[in-house]
Amino acid sequence: MAHHITKLLSITLLLTALIGGGWYLLRQPDAPQGPTYSEVQLHRDNIRALVSATGTLNPVNTVQVGSQVSGTIQHLYADFNDQVKQGQAIAQIDPAIFKARLAEAQANLESAEAARDKAWIGVLDARREYDRQADLYKKKLAAESVLDAARFAYQSAQVEHLVKSAGIAQAKAALQREQVNLDYTTIFAPIDGVIISRDVDVGQTVAASLQAPTLFLIANDLARMQVEADVDEAFIGEVQQGQPVSFTVFAYPHRQFQGRVAQVRLQPKVEAGVVMYNCIIHVDNTDLALKPGMTATINIEVARHEQVLTASNSALRYVPSWPQDELDKVRKGLKSNQAILWRVEGERLVPLTVETGIVAEKMTEVSGLELMDGMTIAVPPRRQDTERRRRFGLSLF
Prior knowledge:
- The protein has five helices and 19 strands.
- By secondary structure, the chain is an alpha+beta fold.
- It folds into four domains: 38-47 and 308-391, conserved putative lor/sdh protein from methanococcus maripaludis s2 fold, CATH 2.40.420; 51-60 and 220-304, Efflux pump adaptor protein, beta barrel domain (Elongation Factor Tu (Ef-tu), domain 3), CATH 2.40.30; 63-90 and 190-219, CATH 2.40.50.100; 95-184, Helix Hairpins (Orthogonal Bundle).
- It has a six-stranded antiparallel β-barrel. It has a four-stranded antiparallel sheet with strand order 3-10-8-5, with no helix packed on it.
- The protein is elongated, with a radius of gyration of 47 Å.
- Mean pLDDT is 87; it is low at 28-32 and 388-397.
């Protein structure tokens, strides 16, 4: 009996020890996590530096067609999206008033010509009277004062004839002006192109007293477009004429369009305290997919290097958990174009000073005597590398 009790007690103690030990092990802190970094390799790749901005698509050449005379729109011969040729009539302003003014100017010209002819007759009459008085004066039959009066009348008639002749020139100019105004009532297309805007309707009155009202907007060639983009002053120094540009529009989110920088305009624009410069980017739009007014998200390629060593930007930001004084020694003397990469050698990290080149969105060009393609370097630990590991490969909490 005592033997059975002793045996039962031993089994109970053993089970208690096993349960207690298991509980202790499971309650232990997480096992050591190993290195506090992940490993990647340097590799060669093409890298390019981009300047990003947004802009608006517009035709390269647009002309606002207006009216130089006021009146009521009588006819419209063109509408939105119509193709027009230079010299083609596209609108007609009611010409009735201008025809009446032209007829009035024609009558004024005829009246001026008649007045000139009448003045010429006056000249002939005054000349005849002057000759008669001169002949009588020679014969001592007329006083000198009478001769002087006849001479003055003759000269006055000549001047009057000149005045009436000038009146003809004035009447002709008025007639020509009214003819031009009448011609202006017919609106012609100044260039070949497509109408992208029509701002008037039949029956609408246009007033050209202060400035020419806009009737149509004509784009010369929609197969050639341009993006007008505003670039921040912090990056404008890198943008040069001729640089390649890629961009997307909301209408075609999966299509990338190409263009080139055609002009960097010198006139600054200030928006919310930020100085911007307008860049003109020429775009081939042969398939007419791009429409005026679309918003373009552009990337200007300001630099490009082929097959150079690149490191992830996270590798350049990685800092191991070394004492601060040791990190300060490593960083001492770094220049603005230099950074530290941490080479993995077994279980330890070796700092390498490298020179940086083009900085892209995710990668940076690096160079240095000790760098090699395929070299293993440290980066901040990835999520899968920092998941908690518990003993036995099991986590109950």
